Structures are given as structure tokens and as C-alpha cells.
Amino acid sequence: MGSNRMRFGEKILFGIFALIAVFAILSFVMLEVYRSHLNRPMYPVTTSFDFTPEGKRGSELFRERGCTDCHRAVRNGTNNGVSLDGIGSRKTLDQIYSFLKNPEKNYETKTFDHGPNKEAKYVAGLPDSELHAMAVFLSELKAIQGSPDAEAPPPGGSGFIDEMVKIWAPEEWKADRRDIRLEEPSQQQGTAAPATATPSAPNAK
């Protein structure tokens, strides 16, 4: 009859897995205890929002129309698609609305899930009033300057950024570009991107 006793090598392997499991459990418990005693978020919150009435309606439509099945916004939803927290600091209301209305024309290339014969193609067919409300909602999702969700770099000087610019930026850039890190926030908002007309709320179709 075969023996059911574990071999020496199997005992060592089992012991290693047991130690890893115990270490993982203890680490999780200690992290939760540490987190529960903090009087601030464990990780810095770099995104914010202040919704207008239309932005609040757009937030409701964003959830009701199933956008959170793929996207994350206001720290809700999934990460199957692009996280949209902070998108209002990278794209204008006009750009967001144009994408929702005609994504592949706006990007001038194929999109992963928006566009004809794709899972999220229904979004472009929603009433214009709903698309505009969702665009307003997304445009009001802001990010702190210099955070990963923001388009602008951190304000003030940065030795690392200065060195990267020195190494990689062509000399001719200096003639027609400026360092927005050294400008006041009001100057950045007024000149960082070409002015675009904000679309007025269209009538529902």
C-alpha cells in the first residue's frame, strides 16, 4: 500500500506557502489597524468636483446609462475602461461633448469600445440634452495641478523636469513655448489651450 505521508520536500513547500499566507494575513490586519487610526486619507486625494445642477443630472445619467460598467468617475465604477476622474483638467467641455457625440471622428482613429458596431456605440445615439449633461458632469471632474490626473505639471521649479527638458526638448521649442509652471493659475487657465466655444445645451431629440 502506498504511503500517504508527506515527503520532506513537500513539507518544506507546504511550510513556505503557509508562511506566505500568514504573512499576507498579518500584513493586511496591520495595514487596516494603521489606516483606522489615521485622521487623514492614507493616499492623497488629487481629484475634486463641484457640480452645477446640470453636472449633477449628468452624474445620474452617467450611472443610469451604464457608463460605470467600464469607467470610473467620482471614485465609483470599474477600471475596465479609462478612469475619468480629473478629465475636466485635461479636456474642455467642448472636447468631451464632441467625443461623446462622434468619438471616432473626434479622435480621428478607431476607438476601443466607442463607435459603430462596438459595445458602447449606443452612447452617441443618446439625446443631445443627455450627452451635454454628461459632458458637463465630466468637465467638472478636476485634478490638482501636477497630479497624474492633471495635464499641467507641478507649479514651481523641478530639478527633474528641468533636466528632462534640457536633455530631450529641442532648442527651437524655446522660441514659441513657455514654462507654465512659473505662471499664475489664472494665466494658465486663460492661455494654456486655444479658446473654444462652450456648447450651449441643445434641445433633446
Q: What does this entry look like structurally?
A:
The protein is mainly alpha-helical and 205 residues long. The chain has a domain at 47-146 and 155-191: Cytochrome Bc1 Complex, Chain D, domain 2. It contains 8 helices and 4 strands, in the order H-E-H-E-E-H-H-H-E-H-H-H. Strands 1-4 form a two-stranded antiparallel ribbon. It has a two-stranded antiparallel ribbon with strand order 2-3. A hairpin with a 2-residue loop joins strand 2 and strand 3 (76-77). Helix 2 (53-64) packs across helix 5 (128-139) and helix 3 packs across helix 5 (128-139). The chain is extended and about 70 Å long. It starts with 7 loop residues before the first helix and ends in a 14-residue tail after the last helix.
Topology:
Blueprint: H1 8-36, E1 47-49, H2 53-64, E2 72-73, E3 76-77, H3 93-101, H4 103-107, H5 128-139, E4 141-143, H6 159-168, H7 173-176, H8 185-191
Antiparallel strand pairs: 1-4, 2-3
Helix pairs in contact: 2-5, 3-5
* Alpha carbon gyration radius: 25 Å
Taking the sheet with the most strands, its summary is: 2 strands, antiparallel
* Arrangement of strands in the largest sheet: 1-4
Sketch the topology as an H/E string, one letter per element: HEHEEHHHEHHH
- What CATH calls the topology of the domain at 47-146 and 155-191 is Cytochrome Bc1 Complex, Chain D, domain 2
The CATH homologous superfamily of the domain at 47-146 and 155-191 is termed Cytochrome c-like domain
Summarize the structure.
The protein is mainly alpha-helical. α2 (53-64) packs across α5 (128-139) and α3 (93-101) packs across α5 (128-139). It is 43% helix and 5% strand.
